[in-house]
Each structure stands twice: as C-alpha cells, then as structure tokens.
Design goal:
Blueprint lengths: L3 E5 L3 H12 L3 E6 L10 E5 H9 L3 H7 L1 E2 L2 E6 L4 E6 L10 E5 H10 L7 E3 L3 E6 L4 E5 L4 E4 L1 E4 L6 H6 L5 E13 L10 E7 L2 E7 L5 E8 L10 H7 L5 H8 L7 E8 L6 E2 L2 E3 L2 H4 L8 H18 L3 H30 L4 H10 L5 H12 L6
Parallel strand pairs: 1-2, 1-12, 2-8, 5-14, 12-19
Antiparallel strand pairs: 3-7, 4-7, 5-6, 9-10, 10-11, 13-16, 13-17, 14-15, 15-16, 18-19
The structure holds flavin-adenine dinucleotide (FAD).
Flavin-adenine dinucleotide binds next to α1, β2, β3, β13 and α8.
C-alpha cells in the first residue's frame, strides 16, 4: 500500500514535493503557517538542474514561458569594467539553462499544479512532531494534530522540526545582509539576455532581467558589528553613488515600498537530515547562502528524489534514508561553495579588491565549466 504523507511548509520545497507525490499517486497534505506568501521583490535564478527537475513535475514549459531565459552573467567592477563572464550553458545542450522569475510567480505556478485544492491548508503553524513504529504525528499551535506514515519538514531555514530533532544543527550568519527589489524596466544597455554582478568595496549589486522587460536586483552589504546601517532606498542610492550608472538607474526606478531586507545566513552542513519517519527538505535541511543561486533549485531536486524513493521503497523509513544518502554529499558541497564564494565577493579592502579584479579576468573558462558541470548536470532517471 502507498504511504500517506504530511508536509510542514508550503514554500518551494513543500509544494514541489506535494506535486511529485501527487504524480506517484501518494496521498499528501501540506500545512503552512502563513497564507500564500507574497513577499515583494524576491527574484530567483533557476538553473538547468532544477529546470530538469521541473520537467519531471511537468512544469518545464509553463515555467520557461513565465520566466526569462538568460544566457550569461557578467562580473563588473564598481566603475563598470567587465571582469569576467560565465555562460549558463553545459557544453552539449541547447536547452534553456538559466531562467529568472519572481519567487511569488514560481509559487503560483507550483500551486496551479496541485490537483486538489484541499491538499494545501494555510494558517496552520507546526510546533512539534512525534513518531512511533506505525505513524508520525504533527502537532499545531492551535492544539490540533495530523498523522500520516511520514512527516516531511519543509518549513525553511528556521525549521521548528529541525530544532526539535537535530539539536546540534547550527545556523551561521554570513556576515552580510541582502536588499532586494524589482524595477519595472531593465537599465539601458541590458537586452534581457544577460545578468550582471558588480563587485566593489561598497558591496555587491546584482541586476537580473525578468520577463516583460522588468528586472530584479539584489545588494549584499557587509554587516559591521551586526548592525543594519542603511534604512531606505534613498540610503542605498547614496551608498552606491560611486558605482556605474546602471546601478543608480535601476535603484531610482524601483518602488521604495517593494524592497526587502534580510541578513544572510546558512545552515552548517548536517551529517543527517532524516530520523525514522521524518525527513527535512529544502532550506530546513541545507539552507545555503544565495551566492550560487541554488537554494530553491536544490529544494526542487530534493522533492523529485524524495517522492521517487517514497514511490518505490518498501518502507517509508527506507525511502527517507535512501533520499538522505542520495542528497547529503551534493547539497552540503553546494552550501560550502556558496559560502566560500560569498567570502570572496564581499571583500571590502580596496587593495585586495583591486588584486581580485586583476585576477578575475584571467580565470580560464574551464574553471567555470567545471563548476557548471557539477551543479547543472543531474540525472533523475536512475
Ligand atoms: C536574497 C536571496 C536570494 C536568493 N536567490 C536564489 C536564487 O537565485 N536561486 C535559488 O535557487 N535560490 C535562491 N535563494 C534561496 C531560496 O530562496 C531558498 O532556498 C528557497 O526559498 C527555500 O525554499 P523552502 O521551501 O525550503 O523554504 P522557504 O521558502 O523558507 O519556505 C518555508 C515555508 O514554510 C512555512 N513555515 C515556516 N515555519 C512553519 C511552521 N512552523 N509551520 C508551518 N509552516 C511553516 C513558511 O510559511 C514557508 O511557506 C535566495 C535566497 C535569498 C535569501
């Protein structure tokens, strides 16, 4: 008999898992603490690995139609000099390799694929989980409970379930914070096919075209003494007044009420993320800093692999354990590379910045290709 599954958290990880389980004919219910999340201004870049995972969820074509396909990212100095460029392309593929989209748009797309609307129940905050040899029980803040053969914890980086079951897990501040926003048009000089990241002593600024000639931006600024030093869009414009004009243009074109701020952190790589009938997925299991743009991508990969194992293993415990074995090495490596990249990208010292800017153009394409092969090349068919 097929197992029944409860998912705590209806973000990218939770919804992707629900779709993948639905495809296996497995009964699933998703509980989320909030009503549908409409956080403003969070853009996501989704790489070839996750596009392939979306294909197995039968969402690839609608996803590509809704997003913006990009072919490369250019790295630029504060004054606008091109330092290096990376193509989002595996050597032997002509498929879309990198597509940008707003998080709210991706969530909407995922929700549209859930066949039975009663699968998603909002306003239910999970507080803890219990299990015995027959079932797993999820308890909610309102005193109610739900039970099933397994509980999937997809409740994000601050996961309640992880805190309960994996007491030594540790969230690590990255030492910088991120502002994000959306502008109604790409800056002059952008044709919608490439993104940019500008690296300089005042911080790092990304500009990423979206569909309909819009663009999102992100700004990472080091936290000094863990303090937020800039309070508004005007403050950001002033902070980057020495940077090239595309940055000032996109900030000036953005709606000040649609920007968001968050300190960046990750989860120290964990040796396990399942316990009996409970599995962590997505950020709950392996939150990474956003430097590789892989958090949501890995969450979608998790979903496909976890559902496949639940569909084919004889016991839920066996399926969760197998999922963990298949995922641990890859996701932990991504967390480590992301963190390291952040350290290099956030260097403030003017001398070290200028050395870095001399070395970057010399990096051979093979260096980037090796990283891309590792991240983008996946096989969901084994
Ligand atoms: C600035 C920034 C830029 C990023 N850029 C990219 C990118 O370009 N590409 C990429 O792939 N990734 C990117 N990421 C990472 C990506 O956003 C996350 O990895 C992804 O959203 C994780 O999805 P998730 O579903 O695991 O967690 P979340 O998105 O955090 O979702 C968790 C869900 O659980 C719910 N929840 C929380 N607690 C409870 C509870 N107790 N009970 C019930 N429900 C609960 C929440 O309401 C939420 O809906 C970026 C992250 C940041 C911060």
């Amino acid at each position: 008999m097929k197992p029944s599954i409860i998912i705590a958290g209806g973000g990218i990880a939770g919804l992707s898992t629900a779709i993948a389980l639905q495809q296996q004919g497995i009964q699933v219910t998703v509980y989320d603490a909030q009503d549908p999340n409409v956080t403003p201004g969070i853009g996501l870049g989704i790489g070839a690995n996750a596009i392939q995972a979306l294909d197995t969820l039968q969402l690839k074509s609608s996803f590509i139609a809704r997003g913006q396909s990009l072919s490369s990212i250019q790295f630029i100095s504060a004054r606008g000099r091109k330092l290096n460029a990376t193509k989002f392309a595996l050597q032997d593929s002509n498929e879309a390799q990198y597509v940008s989209i707003l998080r709210s748009e991706l969530l909407e797309l995922l929700r549209s694929k859930i066949e039975d609307p009663s699968t998603i129940i909002t306003g239910k905050k999970c507080v803890d989980v219990e299990q015995n040899e027959n079932k797993a029980i999820l308890r909610f803040q309102d005193g109610s409970v739900a039970e099933a053969d397994a509980v999937i914890s997809a409740d994000g980086i601050h996961s309640r379930i992880r805190r309960q079951l994996f007491k030594t897990a540790r969230i690590r501040p990255a030492g910088y914070s991120c502002w994000t926003g959306v502008a109604p048009r790409v800056p002059d000089g952008f044709d919608g096919t490439f993104a940019t990241e500008t690296w300089g002593p005042a911080g790092r600024v990304g500009i990423v075209p979206l569909s309909d000639r819009r663009a999102y931006w992100f700004i990472c600024i080091n936290d000094h003494m863990n303090k937020r030093t800039i309070e508004s869009l005007d403050g950001l414009i002033d902070h980057f007044k020495g940077y090239h004009t595309a940055i000032l243009d996109i900030l000036r074109a953005s709606d000040p009420d649609q920007i968001s701020y968050q300190p960046i952190m990750d989860l120290q790589p964990m040796p396990r993320f399942t316990k009996g009938r409970v599995a962590l997925i997505g950020d709950a299991a392996h939150a990474a800093t956003p430097n590789l743009g892989q958090g949501a991508c890995q969450a979608i990969e998790d979903a496909v692999i976890l559902a496949k194992e639940l569909g084919r293993q004889a016991t839920v415990e066996g399926a969760l354990r197998r999922y963990e074995q298949l995922r641990l090495k890859r996701v932990n490596k991504i967390t480590r590379i992301s963190r390291m990249l952040g350290v290099v990208a956030q260097i403030e010292n003017e001398f070290i910045t200028s050395v870095r800017n001399i070395v970057m153009p010399m990096l051979p394409a093979s260096f980037n290709n090796k990283q891309l092969e590792f991240i983008y090349r996946v096989d969901f068919n084994d």
